[in-house]
Amino acid sequence: MSIRHVFKISLKTLAIHKSRSILTIIGIVIGVTAIIVIMSVGSGAENIIAGEITSLGADIIWVEPGREPRGPSDLITTAFSNTLKERDVEALKKKENIPHLIDIAPAITVAGSVSYMGETYRPLTTGWSCKFFEDVFKIHPEEGICFDETAIRNKEKVAVIGSTVKEELFGESSAVGKIVRIDGESFKVIGVFPPKGQIFFYDVGKMMLIPYSTARTYISGTDYYNELWIRVDSVDAITATINDIERTLREMHGITDPEKDDFYILTQQNLLDQVGSILDILTAAVASIVAIALVVGGVGVMNIMLVSVTERTREIGLRKAVGATNKDVVLQFMAEAVILTFIGGAIGILLGVTLSYIAAVVATKMLGVSWSFTFPFFAVALGFFVSTAVGLIFGIYPARQAAKKSPIEALRYE
Fold first, then answer.
1. What are the backbone angles phi and psi of residue 197, rounded to the nearest 5°?
2. Are 101 and 92 in contact (CB under 8 A)?
């Protein structure tokens, strides 16, 4: 029997039981669609984050407190590390220690709400350097000014807020010159950033910048920083600067064994690698869950085929009686299983690509980011391969069961 004839008969047989075939196909469609959407969205998110990181320039170095995290559980420990102190910042500022350093900006996260005349809002309040923020992100206040190094040295209680913070607290009225309260302390608003949306994990509209010295002294009451941002005079000096930072901090902390470092250093490439690794792990984890849906779909195919074998016992016996071989019977039922999963895979691929495109458009409009749609070639190939493999794997057993039937017994079956 020719392959063409086998598939022709298979299509006619499946068409007889349309409802059952459609329900079987749906399981495959859901699994393949989910795989494509997950991989496409993951790729889009990685591109967005990579774009944000590279937009900062390759001349930025981040110094983080605690030991370098080796897994998700280490991130919690690192978040509460207190190893970067003011004396470390002063040591790093010295030209003899870090020759290529242009600027350094300690950062400290401030929890809590900000209030004004009965209105309350919880912004992302950060103790930082406003000048450093302007230089790196190229964002300047549209109203008022940024605080300078003098304000940092004098621990002045001043703040620059984002447009969303301004709208929530002051509405249409001007915010510059007004006094707000943060954790019981009064701060004077001296500037307002323009609406910019999401920039490198920061929603500028929801930000409030205050001098890091002020945040450490009056708000957090701690003697350490959550992060250090460092700019160097040349991308070529990154490696040398990293070595200088490690040497300086080890001397300050009395560390002789690099394995016992209580800090770690990130560069643009480090961040890109970390983001890629995290997203790959998340994508793999979610994809493994989706794989269960495909297995369930495969079991559904096998069940349908087993039912079909039972219902068509007399047909199998008649075909064998007129000369059909075991191979012909196996091919017949295998073809039906593959057709079911192939159709499900094709629909799943089309639906997955369509939903991925819609997700990119919605993300661009809703999140205010440039989420570009990338055709998921690998995901499509994977979806096609998986759907076909499911048909072959879960079609083998029913096909073999059909081939084992004796022609005489099959013809007697009622």
1. 75, -150
2. yes
Rounded to whole angstroms, how far apart are CA atoms 218 and 354? 52
153 burial (CB, 10 Å; 0-12 / 13-18 / 19+) is exposed
* Angle subtended at Cα 191 by Cα 127 and Cα 156, rounded to the nearest 5 degrees: 45
pTM, two decimal places = 0.60
* Integer angstrom CA distances of residue 79 from 64, 66, 126, 147, 393: 9, 8, 15, 27, 47
The β-bridge partners of 231 are 60, 103
Contact 182, 219 (CB under 8 A): yes
Run of H or E including 61? strand 60-65
SS3 414: coil
Cα(6)–Cα(328) distance, rounded to whole angstroms?
A: 8
d(CA 97, CA 396): 70
| CA geometry: angle 50, 84, 141, nearest 5 deg | 55
Q: How does DSSP classify residue 328?
A: H
| β partners of residue 185 | 182
d(CA 308, CA 128): 70
| CB-CB contact of 248 with 98 (8 Å) | yes
Short-list 296, 301, 294, CA closest to 384? 294
Distances (CA, A) of 263 to 102, 114, 380: 21, 32, 42
Q: Mean pLDDT by 10-residue block, N- to C-terminus, for the chain (414 residues)?
A: 64 71 78 80 72 67 82 52 89 92 90 89 92 88 93 94 92 92 91 81 86 90 88 85 93 90 83 70 70 70 70 65 69 76 85 86 72 74 75 70 60 51
d(C-alpha 148, C-alpha 146), whole Å: 6
Which ranges of 125-253 would DSSP assign to H, the alpha helix? 130-137, 149-153, 163-170, 212-214, 238-253
In contact, 191 and 160? CB cutoff 8 Å: yes
- The tokens describing 185, both together, are 């302390």
